[in-house]
Every structure is written in structure tokens, then in C-alpha cells.
Amino acid sequence: MAMESSVWSTCDYSHNVTFFYNWVGKKLNLVWTTRDSVVIGLGLTVCLIVVLANLMVMVAISMNHRFHFPIYYLLGNMAAADLFAGIAYANLMLNTGPWTRMLTKKQWYIRGALIDISLTASVANLLAVAVERHQTIITMQLHSNMTKRRVLLLIVGIWAVSIIMGLVPSMFWNCECDLDDCSTVAPLYSRHFLIFWAVLNLLTFFIMVAVYTRIFIYVRYQTRGVSHHTLEMRHRQTVVNLMKTISMVLGAFVICWMPGLVTLLLDGLLGKASHANVYEKFCLAIAECNSLVNPIIYTLRDDEMRRTFKWILCCLCRRGDDQQRELSPVEMDSPLPEVQFHYNL
């Protein structure tokens, strides 16, 4: 009990955000520099593009009934996570530089929580997609038999876990009671939390890579003995193409987030000796690009998605030319009535 009392007696909740930055030696600019202004301007522009691009993916999936399958619902939820990431980064841009000094601890925790939630949601979605693809492709099906209710529960569960992970640092796993445990990248976060969070995400990545590797090997083995002129072969190729698109999404995610997660891990393990602040902004910029990559992958790999995008843009252009024009019931019910249904993912 005496030890516990001594630990809690070191807590001083009166310290402000600036105190923690000074404690870990992280510089806070007093005035705006040209570099800061350019970074924020470009950052906000990218955030706007990220939000609009992923919003279009979500609209396309909701409007085109040919995307109303579990895998596309999960991909739509991934687009929602990327859209949320764009909002989180925009909030970060609007509360950085000299503005950081004006933040209360609550506002600072919210800023960090938004980033944590978006990353956790993306990772959880990728894991859910990997499991769904494993179940369907091993049985050589195009789509799983998962009901819409189960998909909805899975999506709700993903966001619940993400929100919890985002709130953990502000609720109890911070360094306000142990200043020697403060992170240099996120000065109010506990280094032990960063180690836990980075290891958990890296482990999830490795699991997903192993799952997709097993699927590739299985499909390649099963396809060898099938004639290239059979319907079964075409079905298998469709499944493989779908998996390739998802694998590209996973690969882009790993490439964009791996530097940041490794930086956080080194910061948690080594503290100031890691010099993590030197690479922090670079890693954050790469991570932000990931939210823009996925809509590009969907557009380049999926003919049906690309046609749906064109239809949406055409509708927006027509509405801009004539605000009074109303769509006919046929147009409302069938976004792409003349497009032959096939998957080219």
C-alpha cells in the first residue's frame, strides 16, 4: 500500500501540454514558418481529396446493387475508416505548430484519439476482409454466405474496438503519473502503450500476410489441373482477381503505415535515444497517403466500380447544369442498367 501511495503521489494533473513537450525536448514553434504554412496547406488539400474520394467509394457501393455483398460492405467500411482518417488528419493540421500551445490536455487527447481510431479501424477491417476471403476462397466461392445482420454486427464491433483503443491513453494509459515514461513523439502518451499498440498492429499485419500467402498457394495449386476453357477456370480467375485487389490494398497499407509503426515502437523502447522526432512528420505524411491510395486501387482494378464512379460524376454534372432536372424512376432504381455484370477485381 505504501508503494502504491508513493506512485499515485507523483501524479500532478495541473501540468499543461507545453510542459510535457518541454519535458521530452520536443520543440514547439512560437510563430508560423513558411515551411509550416506550406505543410498545412498541402495537408488540408490532401485531406479534402481523401474525404471526397472515399465518400465516392461509399456512395458507389451503396447505390450499385451489384456491390451488395459482404466483401464490398467491408471494403465500404474500410473507405469509411479512410474518410475518418482524412477528418482526423485535417483536425491534426488545424491543431499543430504554434496552435499546439493553446490546446488543453483534453483537446490534445482527442486529437490523438482520432488518429488512433482511424488506424485501428483500418487494421481491423483488413483483418476482417482477410478472414472473409479465407473462408470463401478456400471453398472457391466468390462471396461468403454471411448475412447482412452479421456483417453489420461485425462492422459495429470494429468501430467499438477502435473507439476503445482510441480512448485508452486519455483514460488511464498515459504518462501523467510517470514522467519518465513519456513518449517523445506523443509527449502525453505512455511509452509502454506505444509499444503495445505498435506490436499489436505489426502482429496483425504479419497474420494477414500469412493468410493471403496461404490463399495464393492454395488457389495456385487448385488451378493447375483445370482447363483454361472451362467455366470453373473463369470462376477461379475471378476469385483470384478479387483477392489480388484486396492484397494490393493490404500491401499499400503495410507500406504506408510500417515506417510509422516502427518509429513508434523505437520511441517506446528507446525514448529520446531513438530520435523518433526526426522521422515523425515524414512517417505521418506517408501514412496519410494510404487513405488516398485505396480509392485509386479500386478505380484501376475494378471496371464495375469505375463505371459507377463515372455514373455518379455524370449525375453531378447534369445536376450542376440543370438544378431542376429530376431523375426518372428507372434511373433511380438502376444506376447502371446497361452494364453487363462481371467482376474484374
UniProtKB/TrEMBL annotation:
<keyword id="KW-1003">Cell membrane</keyword>
<feature type="transmembrane region" description="Helical">
    <location>
        <begin position="71"/>
        <end position="89"/>
    </location>
</feature>
<keyword id="KW-0807">Transducer</keyword>
<feature type="transmembrane region" description="Helical">
    <location>
        <begin position="38"/>
        <end position="59"/>
    </location>
</feature>
<keyword id="KW-0967">Endosome</keyword>
<dbReference type="InterPro" id="IPR000276">
    <property type="entry name" value="GPCR_Rhodpsn"/>
</dbReference>
<keyword id="KW-0812">Transmembrane</keyword>
<dbReference type="InterPro" id="IPR017452">
    <property type="entry name" value="GPCR_Rhodpsn_7TM"/>
</dbReference>
<keyword id="KW-0472">Membrane</keyword>
<feature type="transmembrane region" description="Helical">
    <location>
        <begin position="242"/>
        <end position="266"/>
    </location>
</feature>
<dbReference type="InterPro" id="IPR004065">
    <property type="entry name" value="LPA_rcpt"/>
</dbReference>
<feature type="transmembrane region" description="Helical">
    <location>
        <begin position="109"/>
        <end position="131"/>
    </location>
</feature>
<keyword id="KW-0325">Glycoprotein</keyword>
<dbReference type="GO" id="GO:0009986">
    <property type="term" value="C:cell surface"/>
</dbReference>
<keyword id="KW-0675">Receptor</keyword>
<dbReference type="GO" id="GO:0070915">
    <property type="term" value="F:lysophosphatidic acid receptor activity"/>
</dbReference>
<dbReference type="Pfam" id="PF00001">
    <property type="entry name" value="7tm_1"/>
</dbReference>
<comment type="similarity">
    <text>Belongs to the G-protein coupled receptor 1 family.</text>
</comment>
<keyword id="KW-1133">Transmembrane helix</keyword>
<keyword id="KW-0297">G-protein coupled receptor</keyword>
<dbReference type="InterPro" id="IPR002277">
    <property type="entry name" value="LPA_rcpt_EDG2"/>
</dbReference>
<feature type="transmembrane region" description="Helical">
    <location>
        <begin position="193"/>
        <end position="221"/>
    </location>
</feature>
<feature type="domain" description="G-protein coupled receptors family 1 profile">
    <location>
        <begin position="53"/>
        <end position="298"/>
    </location>
</feature>
<dbReference type="GO" id="GO:0005886">
    <property type="term" value="C:plasma membrane"/>
</dbReference>
<keyword id="KW-1015">Disulfide bond</keyword>
<dbReference type="GO" id="GO:0005768">
    <property type="term" value="C:endosome"/>
</dbReference>
<feature type="transmembrane region" description="Helical">
    <location>
        <begin position="151"/>
        <end position="173"/>
    </location>
</feature>
<protein>
    <recommendedName>
        <fullName>G-protein coupled receptors family 1 profile domain-containing protein</fullName>
    </recommendedName>
</protein>
